[in-house]
Amino acid sequence: KITFGGMPFSGKPSSNSRKNFKGCMESINYNGNNITDLAKRKKLEPSNVGNLSFSCVEPHTVPVFFNATSYLEVPGRPSQDLFSVSFLFRTWNPNGLLVFSNFADDLGNVEIDTSEGKVSVHINVTQVKKNRIDISS
Questions:
Q1: Is the entire prediction scored with pTM above 0.70?
Q2: CB 109 within 8 A of CB 103
Q3: DSSP assignment letter at 113
Q4: Residue (of 24, 50, 54) closest to 36 by Cα position
Q5: What share of the chain is helix, strand, coil (3-state, %, to 5)?
Q6: Which of 33-37, 71-75, 78-82 is most confident?
Q7: What CA–CA distance (Å, rounded) separates 127 from 109?
Q8: Does the chain have fewer CB atoms within 10 Å around its N or its C terminus?
Q9: What mean pLDDT value characterizes the chain?
């Protein structure tokens, strides 16, 4: 027998504690067979202990590939004075625009880019004397 996600009650764990897996697993393949798909379609009779479901409650991260001319534009949040963004990225190009957003009421914009391999944040404010704030890695 082979188990995924923890130790069955009938098994002999190496310690007295039962610290079974809590989370999501996808595409469990064993000897060329997709175990998760077979169990979901009831072509395999898994014995399970606890709450087993064929869905993940945590959101999946979806990678997006951009070429030199592509971009993704999403609507902002009107009437909000907060701007928050987080992302993971990988690139082979030393220069490129990562994020750009205009502020409401033509008050300026924020730009996050890579320049010579360094990440920079530029905040342009149109209503003040010092109209550009730069932060660089």
A1: no
A2: yes
A3: E
A4: 54
A5: 5, 25, 70
A6: 33-37
A7: 11
A8: N
A9: 75
